[in-house]
Design brief:
Blueprint lengths: L6 H11 L11 H10 L4 E15 L7 E7 L6 H15 L4 E3 L7 E4 L3 E4 L8 E15 L6 E18 L5 E14 L3 E2 L7 H7 L6 H17 L1
Parallel strand pairs: 1-3, 1-6
Antiparallel strand pairs: 1-2, 4-5, 6-7, 7-8, 7-9
Length: about 230
Amino acid sequence: MFQRYSLKTILAVGLLVMPGLVLAKGPTTKEKVAALASAGKTIPVVYLTAGINGVSVVPPSIMETAIFNNGAVPADYAAIGDEAVKSFNAGFGVTAFKTVPSSQIPVVEKAIWGKVPDWAATDFELYVAVTVSGQYKANLASSTGAKSAKLNMKCAVEVMENIVDKKGQKKSDSIKTLRFDAQSKTAPIEKTPATLEDFSAAIPAASLTADLLEKEKAEIAKFAAK
């Protein structure tokens, strides 16, 4: 009776039978960066923001109620984009990573997400998107009447490349996404916040910039060292 084996099993057996067999691998990210740098090409780093949202919870329930969406991310966080350029260049030993304004990136309309960057429409080969977002959460303790707030700022640093798929179509492909965040201490509030300004009075929205910067440096250094 014949048995069926997975491709993974067949390959594993083949490697045992033919120890000299080496499967072809594509260039690593480090090799791609080095090649582009040697050719004098730019590796764009684009800073984006995804807004700050506000929610509230009334314990013991963990259900969140939206207060506001897409509040402005303070201009201070643009330093996160600048630091990405410095950290990538330092980590890979090049000067190819450079800031490119988000206004230069084409956009495409998506049914769920609305307007998003159309990376495949660019001439970039390898590129980085640095996106900062945040959330304020108000804790409205129903039994004691006490109220408090907390801020969480998040960052996603996504390394991408444009490739041509098997159908001959150009598309954006993600190589690696580095995710990290910074959280404030809990702060007491006197009234239920209704706006971004209400939350910011208790916890300034820009107060986590330095913490997020330090975490970014560590994550990019770790990625570049691999």
